[in-house]
Every structure is written in C-alpha cells, then in structure tokens.
Amino acid sequence: MAKINENYLKLQAGYLFPEIGRRVNEFVAANPDKKVIKMGIGDVTQPLVPTVVKAFHEGVDEMAKAETFKGYGPEQGYAFLREVIAKNAYQNRGVNISADDIFISDGSKCDTGNIQEIFGNDNKIAICDPVYPVYADTTVMSGKTGSYDSGHYDGIIYMPCTSDNGFIPDLPSETPDLIFLCYPNNPTGTVASKEELKKWVDYARKNKSIILYDAAYEAFITEEGIPHSIYEIEGALDVAIEFRSFSKTAGFTGTRCAFTVIPEGLKAYDSEGNAHDVKPLWNRRQSTKFNGVSYPVQKAAAAVYSEEGQKEVAEEIAYYLENAKIMKESLIEAGYEVFGGVNAPYIWVKTKNGMSSWDFFDKVLNEANVVGTPGSGFGPAGEGYFRFSAFADRANTIEAMERIKNLK
Ligand SMILES: *Cc1c(COP(=O)(O)O)cnc(C)c1O
Fold it and tell me: What HAMAP family does the record point to (predicted)?
C-alpha cells in the first residue's frame, strides 16, 4: 500500500491567489466593459535587458556547435558566475564571501524550501507574520509542525510584524533554532537597518541558531546605510545563510536563476551537541538532487554583473521604483497610511476605519476596478492591510492611482 506524506494533509488550500482570481473573474464576467488594472501579483513585467539577452543568445549559439557544446555543468554552478557574484555582490561591499560559498540554483523559492531538508525535524522555526507563504508551507511539508488552527501551524513560532514594531519582529519569547527573515520585505515593502539586523545576529549567535535570510529584493534598496546583505552585519558569517535571486533583480522570473550563500565555517549541531559544517551538507544535497541551471541562463545571469548589464538593470528597477513613488504619493494623498515602496516594489497600505483586508479588496475591485492583494493572505497579522505591487506599467499605475484617489 502506498503511503502518502501526511504532512501534506496539514497544508491549507492555496487560498489567496485562487480566491483573488475567482473574485476578479466574477467581476469581469459581470462588467465586461470595465478595464481592470492588476497590481496584485509579485511578478515583473519589463523584458530582459539587452546585455542579458545578448549573453543568453551567445550561450545558445555555443550549445549549437560541437566545439563549444556543453553537457552537464558543475552542480554548484559555473565558476564564471559564482566568481562575478562573489566579487560584485559581496567582496566589493567589504564582505568576505568567496565563489566557493555560492550555490547557483533555479530559484530562491526552491532554495528556501529545500534548505529545510539539511536541518533536523526537531528544529523550531520562527517566521514573520505576515510574510512570503513559502517558508511556512515548506516547514509543514518537511514535517516540523503540527496541525493548522486559526491562521497558525502548531510548532511554528510566529513573529507579528505590524506598524507598532515598524515591521521588524521582536525577539520571540520561545527560542527558535532557524529564523526566516526577509528584507526588503515581501509583502510589507519595509527594510531592516544595520542595528535591527545586528540584534538578530547577536541573538542567533547567543542561541546557536541560524538565520535564513531572503534578500530577493536587495536590488531595490535605494537608501544609504540599509544593508544589502546580512553579511554586512558583524558576526553574521557564523550564523546566516543568504538567498538571492535574479527574478526581481533582473527580470528572471521566467528565466530562472538564483543562488544561496553558505559561508565557510557556518555550523549546525548534532543531537550530542557536536558542531558540523553546513556547507558540505548543502553541497551534498544539491549534487545528489539537482543537476544545475542551464548554461545559457548562467551566462545571461553573469551578464547582469557587467558594467552595461548593471546600468540597464538599474534603469528597470528605477522604473518600478518610480511607479512605487507615484503609488505611495497618491495613496497618501488619498488619506491612507502607507508603508514600504522606497526600497522595495511593494506598497503596504493600512485600510481605513479598520476595514478588513478582503472588504477593502472588494471595494477597490468593484469601485476602482483595481486588483491588489489582501494583507491577511500573508498571515493573520496582515489583517487590515493591503499590498499593491509596483510591477505594472506606468500608464496603468497612474490610472489605477487616479481611480483610487476618487474612491468615496
Ligand atoms: C519573488 C520572491 C523570491 C524569488 O523566488 P524565485 O524562485 O527566485 O523566483 C524569493 N523570495 C521572495 C520573498 C519573493 O517574493
């Protein structure tokens, strides 16, 4: 008899985006003449930049000739890509990360989920509430939790992030072994300062915990002094794994390339308290279960770090951030309390008069014909908030904001 992994039965149905889709389809069917503007989903809309496309083409051409054809690549990723990442993303910022600490993958979604496999199921996991849903769901799949009850899985430490704590979680009363942090944050669009991250690094060092730091939106940081990497914090090399992705940075959501950084010497412990290096475990996991990202994609990713690539990608990010600025100003003008949008492509809005996230969704859809994402879909502490994404095109962004300003 085939037995299923019963942890999957604990998972709540993927409710958020299907429910948004259902309500939007219903509205469109009833109002075929209305133009609906979508600012819900966190996906980019601008094409790959020219320098990336050129490298991508060249990679394909190399695959087309016997002399330059490539079969399986190194499981950890090609050295040419790991080296430009180490230099540009880390060493140039004074961070001691080498190419050998970097593992190329096809996405941070996979990496943040897969990483759980190298840690035992007796780890207590802390996650922010609200946050990117992948951390909680993969924690459940891996068997580290009990059942679900009123927005929470038993066994996960939820750390509320609201305007009261500036969207930076307080140190939890129960001590976690693994701590997921995501800055710039999805969905709140907020960032963490060096001082705030230092508090977490010190806490992890004291408790021999590991911080799983998702920096998928690092490239959107515009303000001086905001750390781009957890490793800019003193002591973090001993207690943090960092996830980065080309998805939002360079429009790779459909191209697929990301990387995970595990510093040399980062330790976790066995049941007798003996320390073990984490990097060889991840290397073993990846080389057993993953055969690498395609060569043309890795060439395209490396081109992001060329001088022209950096310039072009920065222009695209500036485009999205200009959208975010327009949105933020319009929403403030319309009387909303607004967070994020300066160092991230998300605007996190507090609804007026304590309106629920879903009631606000219906109001914005029905009266302004604009689609956003209810904050409660990212966790119970997101109730009463709403996420607008800055990834729409400029004309639609402006039109959507005009309509929201005219809401009664
Ligand atoms: C979009 C996103 C990612 C990127 O995932 P990929 O699999 O690399 O596309 C990672 N983390 C967060 C919080 C995101 O929003």
Answer: DapL_aminotrans_1 (MF_01642)
- C-beta 247 within 6 A of ligand 1: yes
Same structural domain for residues 332 and 391?
yes
> Among residues 126, 86, 290, 145, which one has the least CA distance to residue 212?
126
Last residue of a domain, one of 272, 305, 338: 305
Ligand 1 centroid–CA 216 distance in Å is: 6
Query: Which of 305, 330, 362 is the last residue in one of the domains?
Result: 305
Domain boundaries, position 338: 12-47+309-405
Question: Ligand 1: does its nearest atom lie under 6 Å from the Cβ of 185?
Answer: no
303-312 pLDDT, tens digit per residue, is 999 999 999 9
228-85-303 Cα angle (round to 5)? 110
| Total count of domains within the chain | 2
Is 236 close to ligand 1, i.e. is its CB under 6 Å away? no
pLDDT of 52-69, one tens digit each? 999 999 999 999 999 999
For the whole model, what pTM was predicted? 0.97
